[in-house]
Design a protein that fits this description.
single chain, mainly alpha, 2 domains, 84% helix, transmembrane helix, Phage_holin_3_6, membrane, Putative Holin-X, holin superfamily III, transmembrane
């Protein structure tokens, strides 16, 4: 039977104290880490909301520009013809951008070796 004040009891007390202090230290560190994550998440959420608002404003600007272009064309053409001309212009722009984007992605794929070479359009 161990006696009071033996080396074994002192070691057990020291281990218990170190364990308790380590637990408190880790708890304090992780609490601070969690606070930092919450702050970062709030800031990211605010940033996302601002980007969403910018997207809505951009969409409204595009709609306004479309309406102005349509009214300008309607002053020279029949409204149906003006709408057709504007639709063809949008279609040509979309096709050109899609082709440029596809070519860029293919070039990146070839450079990285991530995709096999394709033939054809």
């Amino acid at each position: 039977m161990p006696q009071s004040g033996t080396a074994g009891e002192h070691i057990a007390d020291a281990v218990e104290q170190v364990t308790r202090e380590a637990s408190e230290l880790f708890r304090d560190r992780f609490q601070g880490f969690g606070d930092g994550l919450r702050t970062a998440a709030r800031q990211a959420g605010a940033g996302g909301a601002l980007l969403g608002g910018a997207g809505v404003c951009a969409l409204l600007a595009v709609g306004s520009a479309h309406r102005a272009a349509l009214r300008t064309l309607e002053s020279a053409l029949h409204p149906a013809q003006a709408a057709a001309v504007l639709s063809l212009a949008y279609t040509a722009g979309a096709g050109a951008l899609a082709r440029l984007g596809r070519d860029r992605l293919r070039a990146v794929g070839r450079a990285s070796g991530a995709s096999p070479e394709r033939t054809g359009p």
